[in-house]
Amino acid sequence: MPELGVRVGQLSSEEQLSVIIFPAGLEFEQDILLFKVPSRHGAPHSYFKDNRVPIRPRPAKNRTLQGGRHPLPLPLQPLVLHLNPMETTSNLLSQRREKAEALAQDGINLFSNSFTAPQAVADILPKGDLLQAEAHEESGTTYRLAGRIMSMRKFGKAAFFHLQDSSGRIQIYVRRDTLGVETFAHFKKWDVGDIVGVEGKLFKTKVGETSIVAREVVMISKSMRPLPEKFHGLTDVETRYRQRYLDLIVNPATRETFQKRVEIIRLVREFLNNRGFMEVETPMMQPVPGGATAKPFKTHHNALGMDLFLRIAPELYLKRLLVGGFERVFEINRNFRNEGLSTRHNPEFTMLEFYQAYATYHDMMDLTEEMISWLAAEITGSMELSYQGTPVNLAPPWRRLTMDQALVQIGGVDQALLNDDAAIFALVREKGIELQPEAGPGKAKTELFELLVEEQLIDPTFITSYPTEVSPLARRNEEDPTVTDRFELFITGREIANAFSELNDPVDQLQRFEQQINERGDDEEIHPVLDHDYVRALEYGMPSAAGEGIGIDRLVMLLTDAPSIRDVILFPHLKPELREQGKEEAQAEA
RNA sequence: GGGUCGUUAACUCAGCCGGUAGAGUAUCUGCCUUUUAAGCAGAGAGUCGCGCGUUCGAGCCGCGCACGACCCA
Predict the structure, then answer these.
(1) Where do the domains of chain A lie, and which CATH numbers do they carry?
(2) What value of ipTM does the predicted structure carry?
């Protein structure tokens, strides 16, 4: 077996990178060449197509491969292969391109802008409507539809396809003797995935499917890529998240989920507007990230020469509006937290916050119960639903427990321990929870609650009387200052809402901010900075008030039975996938 | 951050003990004017995620990396 040398040669054309293969040590007069597409990874990839032995030269210009490793059955005589780039790159994409070019050469506009004002499929085909038309017979008015071809059954001189628009799907019947020979010939180059316009009358097929027999068909946008398979669809979750447009095209359930999401947010606005709340917009970029304890994203404003933070909560701005005299305000917008990702956490998520003057957290509980049970009925048609196989009953009234009651009744903690700080710390250690040294008994109780109780709260449950220690912005309870007038709402073991009677005593607020900073001051990532302006605002006087935050994404998950927050966010954050980028660029170059 | 699993044709997936990469759909060619997972006949299509190693030989074994899913922290 001869030794072989492989050398990366020069581009023989714009599209071909040639690789010269020659038996090492042999004299030869003619280059032996080989081909294939340049890779964007730097190293050209090539292989010897005839015998399928891969050769992978490195970017390093010359490299000798050991003979024994690569038993290439190369002839000792020089060999010249001429490979046509069109042949070697033949694939689905180029086939579509060729088809499109053929249509274009026949004068067909592949991206026509002239088919306007179509009707909606749903207007023609209301659900359950049985058409009056007799089978096999055209009747009624002419309809005009536009949408994407989702399936295609071609015959020699006729075809059926399904057209999908944002409202639904309808079958279209195409015949050569209706369209004319020329148009039908063009039509036969249409593919699943193309966006087209159709005009024609209704009829019923043999098996009774209401369809439209096309009198006219127009190409609106030629698709250059094949859609995922019709039967199994697109199931790869990574592709579904990265290429959400594809997911939306082929998976009706995805479309429904996001339609429901939009509807939920619309209904929330309606609910609050009807109760006199006004929607406001407060800064997403804040010089002092406040209103929650979380790691913020940092950015920089060049002209002002200052760092800004994407907000972790709108709370402090909304309460400034209470000071300003807007007595009922709400905001639905994104919050950003620079923390881990999970099935329940996305770095940006949508939060509803609302504030009502002259109200208490008890009013918020009533309002929340009413709003969410109403939403469920509107969206799912029932207050009893199933989340990931677990039945959940949202019908009011909802259970209300203090944290201590929940620890005893659900967590199985001995009532006697609750007023004994030492015993609580002992139990925490016994459960293997690690606490910061400065953590007090309130923090310890909260940790126990999260461990022992939280995930068992399936049906909606308000947990009240949160320790003051873990509630820096909430008003103290007037009878027991160690707890606050606060609740969190849990459904399916997850926190859905957090609300409290607002702290409006500027002296108390300043002290709590200072205490927070003393505890967290060394944590640069949390950036605890005292918001002096907020304290100043309180000094002017803020009405007594209650406020609440509801995680919209988690609420949508609940009402759409979505297992992951990524299923209810159109474009969830993913790490960039280099391989895909490479493919795209290679294709763009080709 | 740790563990488990996954990554093979455009899509959905097989691939045994390490021995020339397979199917269905999609695509292409031919036939086909009521089909609907249309049908019949034929054909083409692969960087087996990436890299290194072991081996005469790696989709398969080892190590590392990337991306994703789930669980844990």
Answers:
(1) 4-88 (no CATH), 94-221 (2.40.50.140), 257-282+314-411+453-567 (3.30.930.10)
(2) 0.92
